[in-house]
């Protein structure tokens, strides 16, 4: 979620002041190193390009102007890297997410279980809160006991039932702002698998590649609906697949 933290820095700056922040990195190399920590210039640029291609679907009139200001700031920062310019440092990324949301990103910072009251982030935070509260999750190996037959798969992040991830994407799409898109976009890159109770998979019938950092992912499965359902792993589709419900399956016996 490093890029989300980086975008959060820009949003904090936008909310806190309309003037350009003072203080520069001493060298362009320092700025590029910092930006690479957030996920690399190329990934940030890809996020901006992907949003541009679907902006009409992820836009709310109330926040259209604000989103455009944030996007312009991010584009300018990317250009500064390529032009060997400096970066105006105002807010450390570790504090930015905490300022903006309570539930998005690793962990949560809510004291009383409430989402942030900031109007721009409130609905996004609610999406993240509901996602965090998904009852079907795998954090530790012991969690597999609740899902008999599900093969063990090494993981870095918590993995959830596919229906919870699908609801998360739908919730963020309904919010329809640049930041909600960014949260969904990064999650779809960072997480590759979800699990679901479904008929046995026979083969992948359709797949898609985002052309960036992620591998090819299946977006449609042929399943044997003459057999009993079981717990199985499925790919989380890339955001550009535009799937609001997954896994998408077709039955062997129609």
Automatic annotation (TrEMBL):
Keywords: Lipid degradation, Lipid metabolism, Secreted. It is an enzyme of class 3 (hydrolase). Its cofactor is Ca(2+). GO terms for molecular function: phospholipase A2 activity. Its main location: secreted. PROSITE patterns: PA2_HIS (PS00118). It is found in: Secreted. GO terms for biological process: arachidonate secretion; lipid catabolic process; phospholipid metabolic process. One of its GO terms (cellular component) is extracellular region. InterPro entries: PLA2-like_dom (IPR016090), PLA2_histidine (IPR033113), PLipase_A2_dom_sf (IPR036444). Residues 101-197 form the Phospholipase A2-like central domain. It comes from the Eukaryota. Its EC number is 3.1.1.4. This is phospholipase A2. It comes from Aedes aegypti. The lineage of its organism: Eukaryota, Metazoa, Ecdysozoa, Arthropoda, Hexapoda.
